[in-house]
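thread: overnight batch results

M.L. [08:02]
morning all. the overnight job finished for the chain we discussed friday. pasting input first so we're all looking at the same thing
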Amino acid sequence: MSESLLNEPSEPTEAVSEVTQTQTDRPDWLPEKFNSPEDLGKAYNELSTKLGSKEEDLKASWQEEMQKEAYADRPATKGDYLLPDSISTEDSVDNEFIDWWSSHSFDSGLGQEEFEKGLEVFSKALGRDEPNLEAEAARLGDSSNDRIEAVNLFANQFFPEETLGAIERMCETADGVVALEHIMEKLKTPSMIGEASPSSQITEDSLRTMQKDERYWNPQKRDPQYVKQVQDSYQKLYG
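M.L. [08:03]
and the structure it wrote out:
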């Protein structure tokens, strides 16, 4: 029987079989650009790494931008904050609160305006209960200086030294001065005084009359001996 091409074995049979097997093993869901699921997994991991890196970069950039915006009004250092006119430079030296507030303001990114507002609020809180001495003196009338000096002399003679601080705070108001005058009234000896009267004849009214003399209150006509006489009389009356 003669040989025929039909009877000759085909050489690429084995290669065709391998391609057919490969196509049969390939999952339907695998995109054509990937040769295997492993290739797809590798590509996914690389993409995730790139995306994660970009996300961190964006986050860092955003935080830096936000920090710049938040600290835009902050001075270069905490020592560059300017004190408001209501606080003198001398008062700020070794002031623990101002030092703390400067550090806090700088760390918080506060600007000059916010720094000053904080100091103003604190100052108002401290001075809220402090009396207006000029207004209180005006309430005592035209003879306010004489009345204040009289109660001051009386307090120094009558009260122990350890209590004078409390008396001084009480007399920061007109009501406090009036209260002390009431005590003086209760303790005084009812009589009139001459310029050389003995202590038994000294009265507060007569002393006030002496204080109205120009030799006492007028700086140009002030008589040291006369002033001393009035002061000694107060000491005799309340001492």
